[in-house]
Design goal:
Blueprint (H helix, E strand, L loop, with lengths): L3 E8 L5 E6 L2 E18 L6 E16 L1 H9 L5 E14 L6 E14 L25 H5 L5
Length: 148
Amino acid sequence: MSNMFAGDGNIGETPAIKFVSTKNGEKKVAEISVFFDKYKAVGEGAERTFERADGGFWLTGSVWGEQAQSCADHLRKGSRVHVIGELYEEKWVDKKTGEERFDIRLKIDNITLGLSRIESVTYKPRREPTADSAGKTDAADAENGFDA
């Protein structure tokens, strides 16, 4: 990714799913506006920390496919998120003025919900084993002490 972006911020509005026609058929997309905080470095060397400073900026991004559905299901206005994606410039002509306009947007590859505002978590039931996986333990599950 040549224009990679990563940042922490708060969701501005609860994401909603839209369906967009593409050359590969109809796809789910969620538009997400995030306010990214501004931080300043304080101290030197090993004592260096970062504190929230006044200001920040809004950035609108899009999440596609099943991740879009997960965002709509789990994220709400004010949710703290960590976002990774690719910045790009979107251009259009203003219909009223005829002027060319542009905006910097984010194609979101990964969005992670921050845990600081989570009160509880409910997990989906575990999938039933398939014939191919019967009796096998996932390496990550085994490493963390979970049974198959």
